[in-house]
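Shipment paperwork, digital attachment
Item: protein structure file
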Amino acid sequence: MGRSMLQNGLQGPRGERPVPSCFVLNNVHTDTSISLYKGRKNFRPPMNLEFTMPEQTYLEAIRAGLEEEMRRDPAVYIFGEDVALGGPFGVTKGLAETFGVNRTVNTPISEATVMGLAIGSATAGLRPVIEIMFIDFITLAMDQLINHAAKLHYMSGGQLKIPLTVRVQCGISGAMGAHHSQSLEAWLAHVPGLKVVMPANPADAKGLLKSAIRDDNPVVFIEHRGLYWSKGEVAPNSDSIAIGQAAILRDGKDLTIVALSSMVAPALAAARELEAEGISVEVIDPRTISPLDIETIAASVKKTSRLIVAHEAVEQGGIGAEIVSRVQQEVFYYLDSPILRVAAPFAPVPAGPTLEKQFLPNQERIVDACRRALSSN
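Attachment content:
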């Protein structure tokens, strides 16, 4: 144990020479999966392609990613409440018929049990993909996820790997109320050892899911319910997309908007609206919030000198606060106005459709924040 403690940068028994504190960061993640990624920094989606790819919904793209990975690797299996029936929105529909109920396993309604069993199977060499129906219910499995999945690689001195993918569904859509509409990604991004991704379109959903399944670390894959039936081009048998790499969706020179998940579409619409007024807006989708690609965001703000951060979660303690803090550390002297956040108010999500609409950040609020930033001296 003393040797393991020293390898992790901790104080050993009396008489042992302490290891420099930088070793504390050893084994937070295993890096064996890095070679799987074919991404590059400052990623921009290809424009003006000479061919067209088939369209899929966000939901279909996730299902296709699961199916391709299950065919590629027999160690991949799906585990969760009603997954053999398709889950609450039909994402896993048909996979039990294709791969059998031994690889698409229905479980009791006990999120803590599901998470604990999946972690155990991951340590034994399988690659479980578990489904937590709503991110609100991940609270019931936080002990297993945070105190075990996120820490076992580190606490074993790198001997254990936890190739676990946790699919959760989040977001405000359909007036489902306070217990089925939260965005809790900032909680998860606060935990060392977890990776957290939030794709905003079908192609990213499929590519990031494939990367999550192939990763030797626990990855929380957050799907937005309101995006399930949105459509986009997705290449068949497409490659994985690097976790930790933001996408520049639109180039601009006057202002940068960083938008997460469901806020990407309103941010792009806001950029088009402002373009009609002669304002050039750059739009960035982080795609991954842990690890966060702050380099791409900071480089954009160096160019534009202004930043708006938009996310659906409540503003207080949201991931936007982390982005703001880190950008100010990196490029404070380039800023021509305060960084502004567009987010939900600090309240539970209301159930009524009218109140829900009022609660939800939107294009109008993003445009207003942009105008305020541009008018600031």
